[in-house]
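Structure (tokenized):
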């Protein structure tokens, strides 16, 4: 063990706790049984097997209220792996569940035996026929697919609120729809073809003209059975009419029996059955969608009504006017949305019964949109709207920012309401549909039912389609509260079916939640046909048992997860998974959601239990050390949960007093540290990369990998010892070269000025001269200490830089321009909590400006591009996203290049200061997809605005990245 390896017990929860009823048993502390692990490893390779108890726990939760611990997790890479696992399960009598994003709300992404991860290696989009169709792999998010289609003016039909995280495989397997899809734009209607693997291992491509012939040869029993079921259904006129009627409104409860009516051949029938089958009939390895036009002109209004029934009554009128979306949000939802960044604070003051409709029209041209707005105006003239808060004008807007704010609040429904639930309670998301004309009546009945059972649920949904969602919170550890929920569910299901002939699951699919009520909705004849379909396609019951179909009338109460309180920073988390696609470590170790899930399991355990011990052993590396600390999870989370901040706190808790003292000493004497670092980088050119790699490698093994950086060949040479000379009297801004740009020079082998020289030159060229203070050496934005959790060192440097900046800028009269985006973020925002009260007052007077903003707003209007390159690719850093200035990078690049490309898969590079040198595997994993996109074609320039991120991208792509300010200086040089 390295000398300074931190003790796992430093992260042990300190509070006294009572073991939870759903805790992982001590017997499972060792993870996957040895024989199961070894047999699967022999089949697919040991690197694809996750078997530690930490691995199993992090895969045991999804966005639903259920929790089931798998026996093993297989990270499948291709259909050969899928077929091998299915063959193994058949031979051993085991069960298999497929999991992609884990955003499902009814437990369908959880299994108790073999769980197969089909997200990590299953990403990709191929645009076909000029955008008319798209071939998409199942691990691809909806947002990623639509980004690929946008240049063609096309979009997918399904648009679930979780589009940023949910994947195509799950969308199709659940027939998820969303705000605008209804029954006409959902997966069932817009999937052109599927490629899937049957439980037997047979692979079917429904687009293949020979597919039926090949299936008949491989699966004669299956083909005959499907055709027999088709004939039986078509011979029953009453049943046929019932099936057609049930799908006139949104319905994802049970199998799509209309597939037997719509499909003429076994392959066509299977194509329909696979949509909405929730992984119980096969694995979807590829989907080809027919896409839809992306109408870019939009007009949207948020309209306030005095009550839920009043709002619901207005929905049919907007439908008649041609609205593409009519979304409903009740008072509880609107008030909870205040926790969403950007939502007006006065929504918290809305009266209890106030309800909003979010109405949107989209059109291909101005004339059509104007006609829609006129029709909407006529509708509004007959409505009794209320205006209890100033921020909601009850008017249509075409402003993209306003519209985006409304949709941000709507899409945050589950997370915002869930985040405000009472601590320790479990969240249930219900999803039902009624004929749209009866929506107002259904709303009134729902409110009465909730009151009778003691619930005050939040209600929102796709009112245009008669589809509502509501959220209930209860204590899953309290049998009485579970019984209250059970009683409510029984009454709710009866009400929906018997009073309204509605759908018990409109778009979230049956899962485990509604399986016991399937027959209540469909009746015994249709339900029996669903069972026979399952037995025909999966006779051994290998795939996802107890999902969709379950004879247990209490199945929806089995496996309910408790939610123990953890650290305040992350306690509101509902485990939705929206944070996962943006997390740099998601394909390496853990995600933000999984870091929280693991922490919660520690709190479920008895103090000192074998499971807690094993979890703590893994948590240091898997959760704390390999967190980039970039806090992009905060941006992705609708309620701004910052798991990165928690990991930084944990780093601090693991530090010894000696480490904290050394870090503070380094902050106090940073001038010497800076000079030494510059000398060391300069000496490296003479010593050579090979020797430095060997020396640092040995030191990392002896001391601790998280303390000693690994030398990377991509590290550039030293910066000039002296900064460029500037003059204060004429300066219009103070220029602060970040310490990384005072230590590291230009990319190796590239001639020209240093970054500080370029910024000074181009600012003067635009008539906006800047001044570099003589005493910047020894100062820093404090990010070095902040990112590592060194509290005292952070305090020392944070207060030093603010005091210095206040003096340099004459008390804030001049702006402070910073040439590294992470340092801008550090000085502008991250230092604040560590300042003294007096220095907070000084900080409030500062204007901290990122160099990208300085260049775009102050320099570009006064500059002429004298030479440009043909193409540039940019790497927006996570700090730019936090600052909201990533668009300025593309603006500068567009000034310097004829074509600018922002990679669709651009994300945090995870270099994170020196973390990419401490854990090079983290940056390699985080940048893999972006690097593949960048290296797929040549570019004349590779641009960013943070030196360490540029080094990280150099290493990932083998290309030379540099600051956009260097490109700007070169493009405008006389």
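Design, position by position:
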């Amino acid at each position: 063990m390295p000398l300074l390896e931190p003790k796992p017990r430093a992260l042990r929860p300190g509070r006294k706790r009572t073991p939870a009823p759903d805790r992982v048993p001590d017997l499972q502390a060792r993870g996957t049984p040895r024989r199961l692990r070894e047999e699967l490893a022999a089949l697919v390779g040991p690197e694809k097997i996750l078997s530690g108890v930490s691995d199993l726990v992090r895969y045991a939760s999804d966005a639903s209220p259920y929790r089931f611990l798998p026996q093993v997790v297989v990270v499948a890479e291709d259909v050969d792996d899928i077929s091998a696992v299915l063959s193994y399960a058949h031979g051993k009598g085991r069960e298999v569940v497929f999991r992609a994003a884990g955003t499902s709300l009814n437990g369908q992404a959880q299994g108790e035996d073999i769980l197969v991860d089909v997200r990590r290696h299953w990403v990709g989009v191929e645009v076909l026929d000029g955008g008319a169709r798209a071939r998409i792999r199942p691990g691809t998010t909806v947002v990623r697919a639509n980004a690929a289609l946008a240049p063609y003016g096309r979009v997918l039909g399904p648009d679930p609120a979780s589009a940023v995280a949910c994947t195509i495989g799950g969308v199709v397997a659940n027939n998820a729809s969303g705000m605008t899809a209804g029954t006409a734009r959902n997966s069932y209607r817009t999937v052109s073809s599927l490629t899937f693997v049957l439980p037997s291992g047979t692979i079917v491509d429904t687009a293949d003209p020979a597919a039926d012939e090949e299936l008949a040869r491989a699966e004669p029993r299956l083909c005959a059975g499907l055709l027999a079921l088709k004939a039986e259904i078509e011979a029953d006129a009453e049943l046929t009419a019932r099936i057609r009627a049930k799908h006139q409104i949104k319905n994802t409860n049970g199998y799509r029996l209309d597939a037997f009516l719509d499909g003429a051949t076994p392959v066509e029938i299977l194509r329909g059955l696979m949509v909405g089958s929730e992984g119980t009939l096969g694995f979807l390895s590829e989907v080809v969608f027919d896409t839809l036009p992306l109408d870019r002109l939009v007009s949207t209004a948020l309209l306030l009504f005095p009550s839920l029934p009043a709002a619901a009554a207005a929905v049919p009128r907007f439908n008649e006017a041609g609205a593409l979306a009519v979304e409903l949000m009740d008072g509880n939802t609107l008030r909870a949305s205040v926790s969403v960044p950007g939502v007006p604070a006065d929504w918290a003051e809305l009266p209890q019964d106030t309800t909003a409709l979010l109405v949107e029209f989209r059109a291909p041209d101005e004339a059509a949109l104007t006609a829609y707005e006129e029709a909407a105006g006529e509708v509004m003239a007959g409505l009794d709207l209320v205006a209890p808060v100033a921020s909601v004008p009850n008017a249509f807007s075409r402003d993209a920012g306003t519209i985006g704010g409304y949709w941000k609040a709507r899409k945050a429904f589950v997370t915002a309401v869930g985040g405000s639930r009472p601590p320790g309670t479990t969240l249930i998301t219900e999803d039902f549909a009624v004929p749209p004309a009866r929506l107002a009546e259904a709303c009134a009945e729902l409110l009465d039912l909730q009151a009778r059972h003691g619930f005050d649920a939040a209600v929102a949904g796709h009112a245009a389609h008669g589809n509502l969602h509501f959220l209930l919170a209860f204590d899953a550890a309290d049998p009485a509260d579970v019984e209250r929920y059970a009683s409510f569910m029984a009454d709710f299901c009866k009400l929906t079916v018997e009073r309204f002939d509605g759908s018990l699951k409109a778009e979230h699919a049956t899962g485990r939640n509604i399986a016991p009520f399937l027959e209540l909705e469909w009746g015994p004849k249709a339900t029996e046909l669903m069972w026979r379909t399952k037995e025909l396609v999966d006779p051994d019951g290998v795939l996802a048992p107890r999902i969709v179909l379950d004879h247990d009338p209490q199945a929806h109460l089995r496996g309910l997860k408790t939610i123990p309180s953890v650290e305040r920073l992350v306690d509101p988390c509902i485990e939705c998974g929206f944070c996962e696609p943006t997390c740099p470590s998601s394909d390496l170790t853990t995600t933000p959601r999984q870091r929280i899930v693991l922490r919660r399991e520690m709190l479920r355990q008895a103090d000192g239990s074998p499971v807690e011990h094993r979890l703590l052993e893994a948590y240091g590396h898997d959760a704390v050390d390999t967190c980039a600390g970039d806090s992009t999870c905060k941006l992705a989370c609708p309620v701004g949960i910052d798991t990165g901040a928690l990991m930084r706190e944990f780093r601090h808790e693991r530090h010894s007093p000696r480490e904290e003292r050394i870090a503070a000493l380094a902050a106090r004497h940073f001038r010497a540290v800076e000079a030494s670092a510059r000398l060391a980088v300069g000496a490296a050119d003479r010593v050579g990369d090979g020797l430095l790699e060997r020396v640092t490698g040995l030191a990392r093994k002896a001391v601790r990998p998280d303390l000693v950086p690994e030398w990377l060949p991509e590290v550039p040479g030293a910066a000039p010892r002296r900064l460029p000379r500037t003059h204060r009297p004429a300066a219009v801004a103070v220029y602060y070269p970040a310490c990384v740009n005072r230590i590291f020079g230009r990319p190796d082998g590239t001639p020209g000025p240093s970054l500080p020289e370029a910024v000074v030159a181009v600012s003067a060229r635009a008539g906006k001269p800047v001044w570099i203070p003589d005493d910047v050496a020894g100062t820093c934005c404090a990010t070095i200490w902040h990112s590592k959790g060194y509290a005292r060192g952070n305090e020392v440097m944070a207060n030093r830089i603010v005091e210095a900046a206040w003096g340099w800028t004459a008390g804030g009269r001049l702006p402070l321009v910073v040439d590294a985006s992470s340092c801008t973020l550090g000085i502008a925002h991250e230092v604040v909590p560590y300042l003294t009260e007096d220095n907070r007052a000084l900080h409030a007077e500062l204007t901290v400006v990122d160099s990208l903003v300085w260049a775009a707003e102050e320099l570009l209007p006064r500059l002429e591009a004298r030479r440009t390159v043909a193409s540039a690719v940019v790497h927006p850093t996570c700090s730019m996203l936090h600052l909201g200035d990533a668009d300025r990078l593309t603006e500068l690049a567009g000034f310097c290049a004829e074509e600018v490309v922002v990679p669709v898969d651009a994300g945090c590079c995870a270099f994170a200061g020196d973390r990419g040198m401490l854990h090079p595997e983290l940056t390699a994993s985080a940048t893999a997809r972006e690097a593949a996109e960048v290296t797929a074609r040549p570019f004349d320039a590779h641009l960013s605005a943070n030196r360490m991120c540029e080094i990280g991208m150099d290493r990932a792509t083998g290309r030379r990245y540099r600051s956009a300010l260097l490109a700007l200086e070169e493009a405008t040089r006389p």
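Reviewer-requested clarification: The mean pLDDT is 94. The radius of gyration is 29 Å.
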